[in-house]
Amino acid sequence: MTTNLLGSSLVGLLLAFASPTFAQESSLLNASAQSTQVPAAEQRFNEMSQALRELNFEATLVRVSGDRLEPMQWLHGTFPDGLEAELIVMLNGPDRRIVRLGQETSYYSQLVEQSYSLTTDVTYGLLPAAFYQDFAALKPHYQVSAADRGVRVVGRETKFVRVLSRDNDRYHYGLWIDNDSGMLLKMQMTTPQGEILEQLQVTHFYEADSVPISLSDVRGVQRPPRLLDSRNRQAPQFGAQPQWLPDGFELQRSNHRLLAQTRLPTDHFLYSDGLTEFSLYIAEGDVQSLPNLGVQGPESIYNVQLQGLAVTAVGKLPLNTLQRIADSVVLTAK
Amino acid sequence: MTDRSYEQLSALLDDAVLDAREREQHLDSLLSDTEAQHAWGRYALIGRIMKNEATSATPVDISASIAAQVAQEPQPSNVVQGRFGKGRQMVQRLLKPTGSVAIAASVALVAVLTVQQTQPVMPEESVEPAFVTNPLGGRSPVSYNTVLESNEPTQAEIAQQRRLLQFYLLDHNSQRQLSLQAQQLNEQAQQQAPEDEPTQEQRLSNDN
């Protein structure tokens, strides 16, 4: 009897001992299964996009393009009722601000008539819109790689992630992501050859528990009028189209209009690969009168005269890519 | 003019010349003498100021000097005059991008301006001399790469081209924003669509 009792209690003990380790093993298995599904570098990118949406923070950063420095204040938070708020203030030169509340982004300028609002849930102007989404959307044409350790940025330990184009026809990004919060602390945009074109460097970062106080009065601010498409848009008229595009670029919009103040009759095509966009403008060659030229920079521009047409390509792409696209334009129909 | 004639002028201004014939004489000499006319103007102004009647809004006539200045200026080229509005407005448009411009646009603008400050490079030359002749002395912030260059353009043509390039960059930026907005509105419409479907079905069933 006693031995039986002893035996059963022993079994019970063993069971009690074994079950937690069992659970641990299975959770380990799950974790390893997840990491094989989503590589670590991709996970870090996704953590960053999540942090950009969810963190409450106050930051100061500097944007560097060439020899130009732009310091800015950057605040983000989510109100108790779930409304996301973001505020970016230019600290040098004319007072310009971007305020985003949920899906309404407003651009304030000192000149009232130059202020406007956009319906979009990402703040256009600081980071590529794709950085607010999971990497999955970029996967067909970009890849991420991660270093084990990043350097210290703003006194914080970071992880380094690179976003590379698969075909070297696009610019690359280097991202330094905070270990603790997932916040983006530094960014470099480079040519495929490694020349740095644009950098963001956070110089002060404070993560808060709730919405930063400076954001609390943003909700009451009057919003400028919505930016609208011009009403008299027409379909493209010159019947010219590019015969080559880098993989993944898709037509977003196309129309025929008079180009801003120049009153230049122009066909316009906007293409995007999910991370970057470029525009193709086509006008009559003898009216437009630009020489053949090309400039590579944060926004490259290339102009060429082809078959009596002036073809201009503009975008965040290497000059070689824009050149190849513009040179491939052919009259397909008239 | 003598002190005596200044006195006479002053008296005339104050309506203190009693004798009618003398007054006519003074007026005649005033009308024939430009120096006297200037003195008259000064005296009148002094009088007004002392009586506190002068207004600061009194226009100062500088049209003659401006006309002379303008006549000396070289004739601007037709290219610049033709397409863009008048001076100040044009400058403001250039400095301040119009309505639909984001922060990124200003960066692009600067990039173009900086590039344009350098002289055009002939294709057979290497890129380096362009930096040396850069009037600002600094290196261009963007990699500078002139693919081809036609005949040497005039200053006015370069200004015109610079402007056109800026408009392309600005337009590209506003189109990106409009595209972003269009995507968002599209998503919203798609999200609302499933909610609308049941009501449509209800309507259909009602019709039946």
UniProtKB/TrEMBL annotation, chain B:
Keywords: Cell inner membrane, Cell membrane, Membrane, Transmembrane, Transmembrane helix. Residues 181-208 are annotated as: Disordered. GO terms for cellular component: plasma membrane. Residues 128-178 form the Anti sigma-E protein RseA C-terminal domain. GO terms for molecular function: sigma factor antagonist activity. InterPro entries: Anti-sigma-E_RseA-like (IPR052383), Anti-sigma_E_RseA_C (IPR005573), Anti-sigma_E_RseA_N (IPR005572), Anti-sigma_E_RseA_N_sf (IPR036147), RseA (IPR026279). It is a single-pass membrane protein. Residues 7-77 form the Anti sigma-E protein RseA N-terminal domain. Residues 181-193 have a biased composition (Low complexity). It is found in: Cell inner membrane; Cell membrane. Belongs to the RseA family. An anti-sigma factor for extracytoplasmic function (ECF) sigma factor sigma-E (RpoE). ECF sigma factors are held in an inactive form by an anti-sigma factor until released by regulated intramembrane proteolysis (RIP). RIP occurs when an extracytoplasmic signal triggers a concerted proteolytic cascade to transmit information and elicit cellular responses. Interacts 1:1 with ECF RNA polymerase sigma-E (RpoE); this inhibits the interaction of sigma-E with the RNA polymerase catalytic core and leads to a decreased expression of sigma-E-regulated genes. Interacts with RseB. This is Anti-sigma-E factor RseA. It comes from Pseudidiomarina homiensis.
